[in-house]
Design brief:
With 221 residues, the chain is α+β, with helices and mostly antiparallel strands. The chain has helices at 18-37, 43-54, 101-104, 129-134, 147-156; strands spanning 12-13, 59-60, 67-69, 76-78, 116-123, 168-174, 177-185, 191-197, 211-215. Helix content is 24%, strand content 21%.
């Protein structure tokens, strides 16, 4: 049986200490209870997560925290992709335009992918791409989506994109190189798609609350 968790992988299996339990009790549990009453959460995922925490099967990360999960208890699904759509040829979705780097860097590749659950994280600590993505405690390959999946997410979960012309980021891999797609509102209604090299030294500030969408990591116990 597969246990459904609402937390991402980190680096160390252990039972939360007393301070962490107190923090969860004061800051997280009331919000979870409220959402459960509103019917916005998956009760099975919540129950499995709490049980795994009690048994020390949840992986807690001692590394500096750069992001905060906005989708705790929610299941956001990107369905299996078939069309192999690419961002530079999807003007109807990105009416605000797109970076010419998609073509100039020859990034017009998007393989098929199976059904994929994703989580959305909000930036809470300044950092560059390398630092932020490595803070998730998983291999970069496991954090990637395809351009077709990004397009699907934008089409079906537009309301979860970062507002105020700030970016929602998606990691992609082309051949052996990593890039980061940034989607933002260029106007009230139109979206613009940008792309950055993963190794760029751009520094992203927490005050802008940029978002990061990554595949959810399920663990089987």
């Amino acid at each position: 049986m597969t246990t459904k968790l609402v937390v991402a992988d980190g680096t160390e299996k252990r039972v939360p200490n007393s301070h962490e339990w107190e923090t969860l009790y004061k800051n997280k549990f009331p919000e979870l209870i409220r959402r459960l009453k509103e019917g916005n959460l998956d009760p099975i995922a919540i129950n499995d997560t709490f049980q795994a925490m009690i048994e020390g099967k949840v992986i807690l990360d001692k590394k500096p925290v750069f992001t905060h999960c906005l989708t705790l208890g929610y299941n956001i699904l990107i369905e299996q992709t078939y069309q192999r759509r690419i961002i530079s040829r999807t003007e109807s979705v990105f009416a605000g335009g797109m970076s010419s780097n998609f073509d100039e860097w020859d990034l017009n590749i998007s393989p098929r992918r199976p059904n994929t659950f994703v989580d959305i994280y909000e930036l809470i600590r300044d950092g560059d791409f390398k630092t932020i993505y490595n803070s998730f405690g998983r291999s970069l390959d496991n954090l990637c989506l395809t351009q077709d999946q990004i397009i699907d997410f934008v089409e079906h979960h537009r309301e979860r994109l970062c507002k105020y012309r700030h970016y929602t980021f998606f990691l992609i891999k082309i051949d052996d190189n990593f890039f980061v797609v940034g989607v933002k509102f260029s106007s009230e209604f139109d979206l613009y798609a940008d792309v950055f090299r993963f190794t760029d030294d751009n520094f992203w500030f927490a005050e802008h609350r940029h978002r990061f969408v990554i595949p959810r990591s399920f663990r089987t116990f």
